[in-house]
Each structure stands twice: as C-alpha cells, then as structure tokens.
C-alpha cells in the first residue's frame, strides 16, 4: 500500500490550525510584520526562515502571546487568539536561550507547566517520566540545569515545552547554541519527536540548511513580508523571486530581456549573447528577466561540447576546493562571474582545469528558473 | 490592576516621606520665625494666597548678610575638594596594585577594602580621636622615633578632618577605580611597550586614560557626601572648622532657628545639584559605552 | 606578570595599615586596665563588664536593633517593588519623578534628609520615637535596596519569566516561583545593606527621634563628644567583631558556592 504524501496545504478541504489574516505589527515607526497572510496546518513542521530582523521572531512571539498584532487577526483552531494572554494559550514555546529555571531541577522544570493547571501528583509524575523517556533524560532528572551539557539542556527545554501536550509548539532557533556536529544529530531527533507526538511545530531559524532538513514547508521572510511559502524542494528548485533564489543556497543570476521563441521557451539576451530557458511563467517580449541557475547545474569543459542548449566561454578566476566538491569561478568576457560546481569523483591530481585556463560552461534550457523580480 | 498597586505603594511612600518633606523645608525656609518653636507664620490656615504673599526671601538675605554662612559654604567646598584629591592620591595606587595582584588574592583584597565599609562609620571616625589627640598614639610614636620634639596639634584642626574624610571614604574611591583597572586588557600595556613606550609613559598614555571613568566616579562618590559631612568635622575638626553640615546641625539644635536652618539646607542642595548632575552624566556615558 | 612590583607591594601595605591600624588600636585598648585610654596599664576585660551592666547602652542597643530589623524588612519589600517597577514597569505617569526619588536619597546629605523629615513629622503632629526613626530609615534605605535589586534585575534573563507565563503561570506566580528565587541573593544583600545603614545612622536618627527613643549611635555620639572612653572602645570592638565575622562568613559562603558551581560545570562537561 502506497503511503499517502503529507500535503494538507494542497487539500482544499483541510482547515488550517493557524491562520494569519492580514497581520500587521508595528513598533512605533518600525513595521515588523507587513500585511501578512499565512496558513499553517496540523502536524506540520513549519519553518520561518529569514535574516535577522525580518520579522520571524515577532511572528513567533505573536503566536505565543507576548505581542499582539497591530492590525489583522491570528486564529488558532478557528478562534481569534488576539488578547488571550500567553498563560491561557494552548501554545508552548522553546526559547532560544532555553530559559531553563536555574533554581529548579530538570524534573521540576518539566513539571512546572503541569503543576500550573493540575494538582494531581500521580498524573504529573507520570507525564514527567514520559517526557524524560522521550528525550532520554531519565538519568538527569535530579540535576540542576547548570549540571548538564548544552545538548541535554536543549532536550530539557524541549521536554518542558512538550509536557503540556500543546496544540502548537514554537521553537525559536532551537539549535543555535549547539555545535555543528550535535546540531545535525539533533535535527533528526527533533523530526523524530515531532512525528511521535504529532504536534504541530513552528520553527524560527536563520539557518537555511536546518530549515531544509527539518521542515515540511518553509516560509522565506524578508522585511516583514513572506516572500514564498513552499516545500524545501520547491523553494530550492523553483524559487519565485531572485531574493529567495539568492537566500537559499548558491546561485548565478543572469539578467537580460526576454523574447518568446516557442511554447514556454524564451531567449534571454544577456551580455555575452543569448541563452535559452524554459518557463511556465509567461513573459512578454522585451520584458526584463533574471535567469537563476544553481552552480551544480552548470557544467564546465576544456573543449566546446556538442549539442548543448547554452554554451558560454570564459576564464577560470578562482577555484574553491571543498573536498567533495570544487567550485570554479569563471569570468565571462563582460566581467560577470559564473560559478560552476563539480563533484570530485576523481582524485585531485587527475583533474586538468587550473587558474587562467580558458573553459566552456554549459547548461540545459530546463536547468535554470526565469524570474521577473 | 496589580501593576497599579505595585507602582503606587513605593511611589506614595516616597512622595510622602521624601518629596513632601522637601516642600516643607522649602516653605519653611521662606517663612518668618514666630517664636523659637513652631508654628511659623504664615501657615496654610491663613489661606493659600495669604500664605504665598507672606513668604519672602528674608532668611536667604540673612544668609548673605552674615558672613558665617558664606564662609561655611566656601570652606566646605574647599575641604571637600582637598580631601577628594587626597583620597585619590591614596586610593589610586591601592586600586592599581589590587588590579595587578595575582587573581587568587583579589577577592581577599577586595574584601579587605569593603570590610571597613560595613563597620560603623561613627566608630571609624572615633578611632582617630585617640590617635590624633595631643597625647595620642601618633604623637607618642613620633616623639619616640625622634621625628618631632614637641607634640603636634592635629586633632581639632582641618588636617584631622582631611584624615577623617580620606579614611572613611577611601573604599568609595578604590572600588570604582579598581573595577575600571580590572577590566583593562593587560595586552594594551604590552602593546604600548612593544611600540616603544617606557613603563611610565605607558601608564600615562594607556592606564590613566582608560581608568578615567573610574577616577571620575570615585571622585564624585567622595566629594558629594564630603560636602554635606557632619560627623567628621564635629568630632575631629575644631571650632575653626566650618562645614555646612555642621552649621546646619548647630543652627537647628543649638539656635533652634528652623527657618534659617531650612534656608541653609536649600542652598546646600542647590550647590550639590551640579556635581550630582555631572556624576549622573558620567555614569550614563559609561553605561552607553559598555553597550 | 603575576608578581607585584615593589611599588605595588608598598602601596598595598601602607594602604591597609592606614585602613586597619586605627581599628586595631581601638580593639587593643578596649582591653586596657586603665581609664586613660592612651596609656597601657595591663590586660583587663572590665570595660566589657561595665558596658554590659550599663542599662542605657543596652536599652539603646535594643532600640537600634528593633529599628534596624523593622526598617530594613519594610525597605526590602518596598525597594524590591520599586526596582521591579523601574526595570519592568514600562512607561507610567511620573516615571521620571519616581526614578529621581529613588536615586536622590543616595546622594542627599544626611543633615538635609533628617531635617526635612523632622519638619514633616512636626508639621503633621506625629510624636517622635521609634516609629518616626523607622519611617525615616525605611525611606532612605529602600532606595539603596532598590538600586541593588534593580541592577540584578537588569541582567535577569527576561525569557525565564516569559517561559513561566508560556507554561501557564500567572504573572504573580511567575514572580513568586521564578524571578524571586533567582534574584534572592540580591534581595538578601539589599536587606543586609539596609540593616547596616540603619544600625550605623546617627544624623537622621538624631533628627527624627524623640526623648523616648535613643539609638546606639546617638548614645555613642553623646559620650564620644566628651573624648575617648574605654567603654566605647569595648562597644566598638564588639561591633567590629560582629561585622568581621559576618563579612568573612558571607565571603566564605560565596567562595564555596563558586567552587560548587565550578565542580558542577566539570561534571556537566564530563557527562556530555
């Protein structure tokens, strides 16, 4: 039996768990969130991605109840939550600093939220034990937060915010304080826990790799606006704007004017000639457009190959050797630099392209995305 | 609702027991003395307008006519300035040596500086009475070593007041300078020496400028309370030691002239406003620099 | 680098001699047999005996202690509230005036504070005694408490309070269960500071007390005005001794806490 793909956002019958409707948030003269509309569905692992100051933390704080929108409404499970204080919301948050209470043991930290709404000691105890087990912290229950390591603290923060079984869990840069190795392992752990508990996760991050790894959908934000909301592969392969293409991963941008040459096929007049690209998005003749093409989709050759859609000549300016990959910075006659990436499947000594070499670069007409902004 | 209670309780307390008393002092300083005891005319019972029209600057005029007060203000300022400089001269080398001391000694040294601060101020001043008096320990010691042949008169002079102020306010000078020097990156001195400065030159060009804020803070912390000091001039100073705190106290308790005492207080406050504002500004700048 | 230069050693030595010799002399001569305080006539503890049988001193000590405990406790409550309002209260009507009233008493000459309170108490017809001293001491020491507590609150990680709210705690519970336990050391030092200031105060107490209440500093003052007395030396020795024991105990306590924290961090690093 084929597993159904988890994609409630494509199903018109699904009602979203969270609805931002024309939300604007201003702090004095500064507009942190600008007329934002967004739906997040149950069981999603949703990432808010953007540079610092783009408004992603403000959105999270509005969901938690620490800020209220200046305009518009936020609905949680169909109810407007404006004005509901944070301690009355079925939303919990994992803080960037973890905000573990330093004077309480791990056990008491996890029990803190449970004790606020119930005095049933046995039930609280059972739930705390369950959370300790989920996050593999049984051994550390009696310790204080400063007596455990950074990774363990991160898991305590997670256990504490999950203990009340919130409808929605907010994670503010949850892995920011961990080193690179630990972060990778923890990403998978987070996904695992999210799946086990079935909780909706909204994560705020500025790390695109992290967002790509954990999220079911990503909202790329800039200056208080959502630039694009899509699954990680769509964000990478089909960005809707130069900003998104540039923000996620490495990209070459070629600017020029377009002319239709066939069905969904356009010729883009660039500095060193004309390149061909396919696009679902319609363009009118003479319109300015940008071709975004990823370095790994650009091939590099020492001699001109036959039968390619696009072929340009240039000179190798720089080579960045990354071990598994090499990136060649090829300067075109007009001065523009195109990055071409190859996987180093052969030993270094056998490769034959070096600085100042004249080379050919090529790509297919479906390799890039034609963008109007 | 809870926030209103939280704000209003300390607010009302301070209004009632800090601000209103000042208004009272100010009002009385403008009143006439009716008898040696209250009430002072005019009173609020006469109606606000009558009260306001009868207030006058007579007491302040009196202060300018009797040169005792004028001299007391000048003398207080002089004593406060001189003792602040003396405290700096004694305190800076100590703070510097503490900041240079091995880090495992520093908490102990710091505690030794702070300890006197927790002991009674009065007792610390009193301790000098027995030392500075005619047959006191200092004279005994100096006579014994043969440095002097006749006992010195120190107690009941301004010198004793300087010693008393330096002694009691020394921790206030050391602590801010120490904290400034403690934060000073030792490699800066090394860099200066590496670039050709002598030790002393590096001290003048690097250490002093970078501890400037600590020096300023320390000087204000000594100068401001020294200006209004009462215990030290009364106990260690002589009849010739004029300090405004002492004058105010005597005007009030001995002469029972409350309106004049109030006027003295108002003027002292006006004099203090300048250093206090300067001190605040220094603190603010430092706080901003740290951000 | 860690060795001190001779100049530094000399300035430290002279400095500490200057700070401590007067108090040492005071202590030594409190055990002097003679009434003449500058002539050593043999060891004796008789002045302590006389001190402890002097009812006037004991009464004054009892008044002082009562005033200090009551005023520092009220001052701690009010000062902590004021600190919280200053750091967390946001904007409210008269905020500038409020913070001015918190900081002004710190630099106000005691003679002015004392005078103004006395004139107020007379103006409203309040009989002077223990109550008026308590009111006066509470007023100026709450400002010191509030400065100590607000400097701790300023470095307090606000997300801890937000986390408590997020987990369902009311604002009051968040303060009671999270903020207060964490800032407790600052609140305690504030209390100790207020207590010491009250024990120490001569000038404000002189203005605000009446014939019914004489504090220990006032009693000391009236007898030292007449010159050095061995009884006062004995009293000073007791007070210095109490403070020294207290300060050393407190610093040993904090040293131990620092050591424990260091050990904890090491354990944490090992189990990571």
What does this protein structure show overall?
The complex is a heterotrimer of chains A (373), B (291) and C (272). Chain A has 373 residues and is an alpha+beta fold. Chain A contains eight helices and 20 strands. Chain A has helices at 56-64, 106-117, 121-134, 150-162, 180-197, 208-214, 232-237, 242-247, and strands at 18-27, 30-40, 45-49, 71-76, 79-80, 91-94, 168-172, 200-205, 217-222, 225-230, 252-262, 265-270, 273-278, 288-293, 299-301, 310-321, 325-331, 337-343, 358-363, 369-371. In chain A, helix 2 (106-117) crosses helix 3, helix 2 (106-117) packs parallel to helix 4 (150-162) and helix 3 crosses helix 4 (150-162). Chain B has 291 residues and is mostly helical. Chain B is built from 14 helices and no strands. In chain B, helix 1 (2-29) crosses helix 14 and helix 8 packs antiparallel against helix 11 (212-227). With 272 residues, chain C is mainly α. In chain C, helix 3 (55-88) runs antiparallel to helix 8 and helix 3 (55-88) packs across helix 10. The interface between B and C is large, with 84 and 83 residues.
């Amino acid at each position: 039996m084929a597993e159904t793909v988890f994609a409630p956002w494509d199903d018109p019958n699904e009602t979203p768990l969270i609805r931002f409707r024309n939300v604007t948030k201003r702090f004095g003269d500064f507009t942190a969130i600008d007329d934002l509309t967004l739906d997040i569905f149950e069981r999603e692992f949703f990432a808010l991605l953007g540079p610092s100051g783009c408004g992603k933390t403000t959105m999270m704080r509005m969901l938690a109840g620490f800020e209220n929108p200046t305009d518009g409404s936020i609905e949680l499970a169909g109810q407007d939550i404006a004005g509901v204080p944070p301690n009355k919301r079925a939303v919990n948050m994992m803080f960037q600093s973890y905000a573990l209470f330093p004077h309480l043991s791990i056990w008491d930290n996890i029990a803190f939220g449970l004790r606020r709404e119930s005095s049933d000691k046995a039930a609280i105890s059972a739930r705390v034990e369950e959370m300790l087990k989920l996050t593999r912290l049984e051994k550390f229950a009696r310790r204080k937060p400063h007596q455990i390591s950074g990774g363990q603290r991160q898991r305590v923060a997670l256990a504490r915010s999950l203990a009340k079984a919130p409808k929605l869990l907010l994670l503010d840069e949850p892995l920011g304080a961990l080193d690179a190795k630990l972060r990778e392992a923890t990403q998978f752990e987070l996904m695992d826990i999210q799946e086990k508990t079935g909780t909706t996760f909204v994560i705020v991050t500025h790390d695109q790799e992290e967002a790509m790894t954990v999220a079911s959908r990503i909202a790329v934000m800039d200056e208080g606006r959502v630039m694009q909301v899509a699954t990680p592969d769509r964000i990478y392969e089909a960005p809707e704007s130069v900003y998104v293409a540039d923000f996620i991963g490495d990209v070459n941008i070629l600017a020029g004017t377009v002319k239709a040459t066939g069905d969904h096929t356009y010729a883009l007049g660039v500095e060193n000639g004309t390149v061909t690209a396919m696009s679902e998005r319609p363009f009118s003749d003479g319109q300015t457009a940008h071709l975004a093409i990823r370095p790994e989709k650009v091939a590099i050759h020492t001699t001109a190959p036959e039968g390619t859609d696009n072929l340009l000549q240039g000179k190798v300016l720089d080579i960045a050797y990354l071990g598994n990959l090499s990136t060649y910075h090829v300067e075109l006659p007009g001065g523009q630099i195109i990055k071409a990436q190859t996987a180093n499947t052969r030993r270094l000594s056998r490769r034959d392209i070096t600085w100042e070499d004249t080379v050919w670069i090529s790509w297919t007409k479906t390799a890039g995305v034609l963008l109007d902004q | 609702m809870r926030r209103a209670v939280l704000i209003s309780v300390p607010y009302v307390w301070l209004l009632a027991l800090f601000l209103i008393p000042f208004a009272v002092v100010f009002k009385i300083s403008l009143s006439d003395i009716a008898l040696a005891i209250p009430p002072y005319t005019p009173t609020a019972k006469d109606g606000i307008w009558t009260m306001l029209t009868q207030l006058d600057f007579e007491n302040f005029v009196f202060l300018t006519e009797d040169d005792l007060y004028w001299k007391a203000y000048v003398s207080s300022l002089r004593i406060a300035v001189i003792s602040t400089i003396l405290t700096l001269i004694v305190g800076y080398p100590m703070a510097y040596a503490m900041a240079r001391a091995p880090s495992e000694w520093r908490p102990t040294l710091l505690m030794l500086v702070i300890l006197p601060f927790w002991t009674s101020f009065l007792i610390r001043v009193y301790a000098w009475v027995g030392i500075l008096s005619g047959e006191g320990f200092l004279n005994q010691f100096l006579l014994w070593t043969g440095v002097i042949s006749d006992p010195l008169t120190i107690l009941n002079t301004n010198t004793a007041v300087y010693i008393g102020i330096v002694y009691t306010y020394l921790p206030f000078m050391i602590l801010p300078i120490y904290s400034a020097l403690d934060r000073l990156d030792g490699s800066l001195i090394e860099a200066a020496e590496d670039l050709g400065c002598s030790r002393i030159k590096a001290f003048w060009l690097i250490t002093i400028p970078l501890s400037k804020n600590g020096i300023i803070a320390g000087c204000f912390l000594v100068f401001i309370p020294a200006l209004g000091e009462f215990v030290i001039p009364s106990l260690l100073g002589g009849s010739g030691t004029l300090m405004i705190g002492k004058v105010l106290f005597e005007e009030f308790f001995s002469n029972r002239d409350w309106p004049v005492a109030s006027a003295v207080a108002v003027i002292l406050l006006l004099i203090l406003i300048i250093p206090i504002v300067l001190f605040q500004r220094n603190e603010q700048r430092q706080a901003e620099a740290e951000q | 680098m860690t060795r001190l230069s001779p100049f530094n050693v000399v300035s430290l030595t002279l400095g500490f001699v200057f700070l401590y010799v007067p108090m040492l002399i005071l202590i030594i001569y409190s055990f002097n047999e003679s009434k003449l305080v500058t002539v050593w006539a043999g060891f004796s503890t008789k002045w302590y005996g006389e001190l402890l049988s002097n009812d006037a001193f004991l009464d004054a000590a009892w008044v002082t202690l009562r005033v200090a405990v009551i005023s520092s406790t009220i001052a701690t409550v009010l000062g902590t509230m004021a600190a919280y309002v200053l750091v967390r209260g946001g904007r409210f009507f008269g905020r500038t005036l409020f913070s001015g009233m918190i900081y002004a008493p710190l630099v106000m000459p005691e003679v002015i504070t004392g005078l103004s309170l006395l004139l107020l108490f007379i103006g409203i017809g309040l009989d002077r005694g223990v109550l008026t001293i308590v009111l006066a001491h509470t007023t100026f020491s709450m400002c010191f408490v509030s400065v100590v507590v607000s400097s701790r609150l300023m470095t307090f990680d606000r997300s801890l309070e937000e986390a408590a709210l997020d987990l369902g705690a009311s604002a009051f519970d968040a303060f009671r269960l999270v903020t207060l336990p964490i800032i407790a050391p600052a609140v305690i030092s504030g209390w100790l500071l207020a207590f010491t200031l009250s024990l120490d105060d001569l000038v404000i107490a002189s203005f605000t007390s009446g014939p019914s209440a004489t504090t220990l500093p006032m009693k000391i003052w009236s007898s030292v005005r007449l010159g050095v007395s061995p009884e006062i030396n004995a009293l000073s020795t007791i007070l210095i001794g109490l403070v020294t024991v207290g300060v050393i105990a407190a610093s040993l306590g904090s040293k131990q806490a620092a050591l424990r924290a260091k050990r904890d961090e090491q354990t944490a690093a090992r189990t990571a």
